[in-house]
Amino acid sequence: MVYITEDLIRKRAEHNECEIFSLEEVSLHQQDIEKIKHIERWCRDLKILYLQNNLIPRIENVGRLKKLQYLNLALNNIEVIENLEGCESLQKLDLTVNFVGQLSSVETLRANLHLSELFLVGNPCTDFQGYRSYVVATLPQLQWLDGTRVSRSERIRASQGLDEVRRQVLVQERDYLRKRAKQREESQREAWEDGDTCSRTSEQPLERNQEEREREFWHTPCLFTPESRLETHRHLEETRKSNEKEEEKEPKRRTLITADGRVMNVNEPKLDFSLTEDDERGLVVLELQVFRHLDTSLLDVDVQPTYARVTVKGKIFQIVLPVEVKPDSSAAQRSQTTGHLLLTMPRADGRVTRTKTVSLAAREDRDRSSSTLDWKRGTVETLEVDPGCRTTVDLHVVPRQKTREGPLQLSRPAPPGPNSEGFLDDPEVPPLM
Hints:
- By secondary structure, the protein is of the alpha/beta class.
- Helices cover 28% and strands 14% of the residues.
- It contains eight helices and 15 strands.
- It has helices at 6-11, 39-42, 131-138, 152-160, 162-200, 206-219, 226-249, 360-377; strands spanning 25-27, 48-50, 70-72, 92-94, 117-119, 144-145, 148-149, 266-267, 273-278, 283-288, 299-303, 307-312, 315-320, 331-334, 341-346.
- It is elongated, with a radius of gyration of 43 Å.
């Protein structure tokens, strides 16, 4: 049986620096709790208490919580509403999907004068004829019932026929209680029969016995009762424990490096990452987006020449590097704002690529000076074509002016003579190549 312990409450009080005496809100849902105990002595100032989705059969040990305003007990095994008279400040009570069949027990909530919301959806009592009218008339302080607002006219009608509705509710309640007693007897008898069956089948092979039990358990129809819900929970716990034992016997082997020496890429924590190469500085940069509030002590970094490995809370992240790096010169840093892990790994070849932007005029001056130097040295000059330049010839077509009709006549070239610069073009001299 699972109880509410002090360590459990401290774990749930991280936002209050693990101080439980001044705690005003605590969430203890899905903890398999089977009994409410000690919480009224440890947390006197509680205002909100979440206990949904547990195995609690009774409401107890909460009467001393004078400041409690909201109590959530949904998805439990509660059958009677009781022991809430001392919760003077209670405003909201959630008993969704329980087993409350004794509807007359809502009369104990009359002492809770500030109770304005009540949830009983999914309980057997909601199937009673006159259920809503009875609850509305019994609890005049209610403003909401099962998520529906209680109007003034509804309250008046319910109070007028309260005696007749109460009589009908009590009759249906007695029938339900007799039916519930039979269900308990049947569940006890089935438990004994299951024990005898297990003892008779213990001589059979374990694997076959387990498979048959699983198939029979999940395919056998049963009623939705507190006993069946508790039995289902225990069965799941047994299955989980048996699976854990099998995993301990045969631990899972993770393949990080194959037998032939090939490194595998692994991302067990399922984190986003980016791997880039900085050619200007000769670095390989790995940015791993680890959780922002993860403590650095839970990270383990291992850089090898061909791969990098980061262990995050026992889960391995491994990636193959594009080039060989220097592990002894690598560095790991974490961002103070995002918490991301940054690995900078220098290249093993030490190659650094520097890029320099040169203007077109400077490039022409450099080419002119180099060509002059080569001419003076008597070396052979070669023409290199820049692939970035234009490789096509622009043709500009000028339309001929229509002066007169007839064949096209070529104009005679101008006679040779000195140009504006005093240069004389001799037709007998071949052109320069």
